[in-house]
Amino acid sequence: MKGRANQYSDVELAWLKERASMPRPELHRLFSETFVREDVTIGALKGLMKRNRWLTGRTGQFEKGHLSEQSGNPAFIQGGIATRFRKGQVPHNQNYIGHERINREGYVEISVAERNPWTNAERRYIAKHKWLWETAHGPVPDGHCLKCVDGNKTNTAPSNWTPIPRALLPRLNGRWGNLSYDDAEPELKPYVLAAAKLQNAARNAKKNLSQNGEPK
Questions:
Q1: Measured between alpha carbons, how far is 206 from 216 in angstroms, rounded to an integer?
Q2: What CA–CA distance (Å, rounded) separates 12 from 19?
Q3: Domain residue limits, the chain
Q4: Which whole number is the average pLDDT over 66-91?
Q5: N or C: which end of the chain has fewer CB within 10 A?
Q6: What pLDDT sits at residue 147?
Q7: Could you report the per-residue pLDDT of 122-140, keeping only the tens digit for each?
Q8: Domain 100-211 adopts which CATH fold?
Q9: How far apart are the first and last CA of the chain?
Q10: Strands of 108-112's sheet, edge to edge?
């Protein structure tokens, strides 16, 4: 429960207004000593001054032409030189061509010497498994994507990735009641993939019949 608001006499208010430019800690100390007001806290005094717009006039910013305490200080300058990067020196955490990282989806990404189309940087990160696969086999066919064979996304060897039609992904992800490829035991994965391909082929065949006007 909040206490009763402090009361101030006209003399006290006039005295405070006249000294509004003083720093608040100093003003509070002097006010308490002059008027014997031990009941007035520095917070209450600040609130009173603010409500009446009796401000110090300070903005908290350096004014034009002001020099900082470190300006011209040899010790500060020497310390600054010692900690600067020298010409040709790079920070320890700067990534380099060939640097690898794991993205949020669990795929390995590698930094390559290709211009980043979004930042215009001279390098960018791309999926390592795709980069290695295309280096070995050429571009991924249109309408296809690479599927991890053993379910371990960090295994980026080209032999661990196979191109599949994108239409297969929902079936391999366990939609429509299918067993999820990534959740299947290793010995079942080939059968899950084969079943998904068969279902997709049947769907495409039915779609073609409908488009050609054949009986559904």
A1: 7
A2: 11
A3: 11-51, 100-211
A4: 58
A5: N
A6: 92
A7: 888 999 999 999 999 999 9
A8: Homing Intron 3 (I-Ppo) Encoded Endonuclease; Chain A (3.90.75)
A9: 79
A10: 100-102, 108-112, 124-127
